Amino acid sequence: MRFKSLVWLAILLPLSTLGLEIYPQVSGTIIEIKPVKTQVEKGDVIVRLDDRQSKLELQYLRTLQSIKQQDFDDKKLELQQTKELYERLVNSHRDLEIAQLAFDATKRELDAHNLKVKIAQIELEKYTITSPISGVIKNLPNQRNVVNINAPKVLMIIE
Length: 159
What we know:
Layout: H1 2-12, E1 20-22, E2 30-33, E3 39-40, E4 45-49, H2 52-87, H3 93-125, E5 128-130, E6 135-139, E7 156-158
Antiparallel strand pairs: 1-7, 2-4, 3-6, 4-5, 6-7
Helix pairs in contact: 2-3
């Protein structure tokens, strides 16, 4: 029943009164925001939040990623050498199993860390807000509320 009443409300309201509220996905200081009455197209950047800390976190994770990649490459080489020595009857089966376990553990660590890097990349994208529709910016936040802390607040309305 509620859905039908919303549909009727949308039909009865003129298109000029419909607007889309823009909320940030992360908290931060607004460093750039489009002014009121600006015409925007879908995909235009309308708000930029301070993303310096997020960029540093991603840089740190990428540095660790290179270290973990080197460790993985070393364990892979060690496993190959252990296999060759095992095939020539120099190493025992136990040595081969230990090398395989070390390689597998290093691979899991690298895979998990690669996921952390992807998550950080997605988080970084949240600091740049693009317009989901074409329209005109109608309202902006109160200037006292330029730091978005605690609960998400409407940044702007696009009609």
